[in-house]
Write a structure and sequence with these properties.
mainly alpha; 3 helices
């Protein structure tokens, strides 16, 4: 993996982590102890990322893919 790809991956991870933490803090779901509870926006972002990754892998391996259908299936 090149340095440019690693930087891009780190930015995406940071974006998703920021979304999850921001949503949890904004809805007062941070308990004094225990796991942080996330909400619908975090789940939607996770499923969207899953669909985009699946679509890119399918396009690379099979050569044919309709990304919107793959993302819709992930939901």
């Amino acid at each position: 993996m090149s340095e440019e790809q690693a930087t891009w991956a780190n930015r995406v991870r940071g974006l998703v982590l920021g979304l999850a933490l921001g949503e949890s803090v904004s809805r007062d779901a941070v308990p004094a102890s225990g796991p942080i509870r996330t909400g619908v926006s975090t789940q939607l972002a996770a499923f969207t990322i899953d669909g985009v990754i699946r679509a890119s892998v399918r396009a690379a391996h099979r050569g044919i893919c309709h990304p919107p259908s793959v993302v819709w299936h992930a939901y």
